[in-house]
Input
Amino acid sequence: MSESQHSQPDEQLKFLRLHLTNFLSYRSATLDFTDLVALVGPNATGKSNAVAAIKLLREIPYHGLPVAIARRGGFDQLRHRSSGRPYNPAIRLDFRFGDEEESFYELKLRGVEGKRYEVKEERGEVHGADGYVYSFLASDGMLTWSERRNDGTLVENPELQLAIPPGQSAVSVPASYGVFLVSRVLQSMQTVEINPARVGELQDPSSTREFEPDGSNTASVFDTLSPADKSELVDELAAIVPGIDRIEMRRFADKVTLAFYQEIHAGKRREFLAKQMSDGTLRAFSILLAMHQPSRPNLLVIEEPEIAIHLGALRTLVDILQQQSEASQVVITTHSADIIDTLGVDSIRVVWNEGGESRIAAVAEHSREPVRQGLITPGQLLKSDSLDPAAA
Ligand SMILES: Nc1ncnc2c1ncn2[C@@H]1O[C@H](COP(=O)(O)OP(=O)(O)O)[C@@H](O)[C@H]1O
Ligand SMILES: [Mg+2]
Output
């Protein structure tokens, strides 16, 4: 089968849900995605742990499973513990291409005495936009796969089985098109964790067009944008930080940084280098840049976008995220009543912890009703601790 017959992986990709089993504080929970969802809940209930699952999945195709696990603190940290007993973790991601049937990818790990962990089973079934169904299964270190047409006709079912190196994921062995599609899907989820200091300092020029999650290559990424994208981003930033009317990359010897042109009072413009800009401006700029990056992810995760951003500016930023989320899905974590007032009750996913187990659910009907009647806002519910989750 020639490449040209295959679907374009990123076309019309929508993430549907993430199911976590025995992963960090989760015993069993499902996060349903829409265009934009906000994880809301007290500290240490599990919001960042859900984000950690997304980071782990993304890092599998980039760095391999052993590195992805090591970066989360190692297998023993990762498996759910309650009353001291460690369980075997599993992650399942459901997604969909266009109007095709639902696709999924599932990874199950287990602890092994003497070794740290092994892949217990890995499965995927991708309903491509090209009308083909790509399935694969990896267990006991062997990968098998098949390709069918929608009507069930078998296209390819190689006798061949491929060995997967111990501890590795099948996603690192892109032998079948289904595995390739899954690796593209996983790579198209990105978590943004802006460190304003990294945005402000002189940066090494980077050749990659992909936004570094901490913002450490913002100057280079901005420079690769088309003039139209640059001016859209500048307009968006100007709605948050009034007066900004131009941004450009500047070189200093072997380093690069951004220069922001801002009108400080009538007719008087000044140039500020990134290191002179406020943390809030650098954070807002970086979040907008992540949304505009040339290889834009299909799902962008932003933890606490409210940090260091002024209230009026925050509403504008959230409006922009909401508009952009029609093209790229967005997941945020937040403690901001103003953000959830802007988003509305349907976007909220309540996260709470019950007996050491994290749960996720939409807002309960009895909490929604007074919002619908205009008696209270979601933010007021949050402040009065009455944002109750729907029964799971
Ligand atoms: N392996 C694990 N098993 C059970 N609970 C865990 C595990 N790892 C972390 N936790 C719990 O998760 C909590 C942190 O959750 P986190 O998602 O960071 O909270 P937040 O909602 O503030 O982002 C910790 O306080 C700890 O109780
Ligand atoms: Mg957190």
Notes: The chain has twelve helices and 20 strands.
